[in-house]
Amino acid sequence: MDRHREYSDQFREKQKRKGRFLFLLVMFLAGLAIIGLLYVLVYSTALQMKEVVIEGNKLVPENEIWSGVMGEMIREHRWKSLFGPNHKAFWVFGKTPDIQRLIPNIKTIELEKELGKGRLVIHIKERKVEGVWCFGEINCYVFDEEGILFARSPDVSGTFIIKIQDDSTSYARLNTKIVEDAEFQNIKTTIEDAEKAGFHARKVTIKSEKEEWWMETIGGTLILFNIKFKPKGFVEVIKTFLKKNSSSRPSQIDFRVPDKAYYK
C-alpha cells in the first residue's frame, strides 16, 4: 500500500514537472513569436516609407517643418516613437499636427498620405506679409492679411509696405492679433481703397485709447478715422478736397463721426 502511494506521488510530481515544462515552452515560443512579429512590423522594408515630400514652403526650412511635424505627432501619441517617422504605422493615426504654434510663419498644413505607396506629401501654406506693426521704435512685427503677427521685423519706412505705428503699451505675441477682426478689416480696406484712388499712406498711427486711427498721406494731409467703422463714401470726399491746389487743401480731414466729414 505504501509502495502504491509512493508511486502515485512520484507520478503526479512528474506530471506537474511536465506541465510546468510545457507551459514554459509555450510561453517561450509565444515570446519568440511576438518578438519576431514586432521585428517584422518595425523593420520590414514593406512597411517603410519610400518618399516624403514637403511642398509650398519658401521661407521656412524643410528641416524645421519636418522636426515640428514629428514632434507634434509623437506628442499626441507617445507610442509612435517606437516606430519612427520612416514607418507607415507612424502616420496611420492622429490628426494633422498643429505646428503653427511652433512656427507662426506657417498658415496651414495638410498631410497627403499614400501609405500603400509609402508616400507622404506635406502641403504648407506660408503667411504672406501684409505690413509691419510697430510698438515704439524698435518693437516691430510683420502681420498677414488677417492681422496676425508672425515674425519680428526691423523698422521700415516708405510706401512700399504698410507700416502701422501703435501707441498702446500692449504686449505683442507671435501668432496673435492686436485688434479685433472687424477693426483690422476697417483699417486694411480703408487703406486699400485710398491707395486705389491714388492716395498713398505715408504713415498710419493707431490711437488705441481713443479707438481711432490716423493716416497721413504723401501730400501731408492727416485723415482721422474711427476704428469701429469704415466711413461710407470717404474716397469721394478725399478726392474732392485733394483735387484742390496744394495751398487750399485742408491739413486735416476727420471721419470719426458716422456720416460726417470735418476738415480744417
UniProtKB/TrEMBL annotation:
* Annotated transmembrane regions: 21-42
Query: Keywords for this entry?
Result: Membrane, Transmembrane, Transmembrane helix
What is the name of this protein?
POTRA domain-containing protein
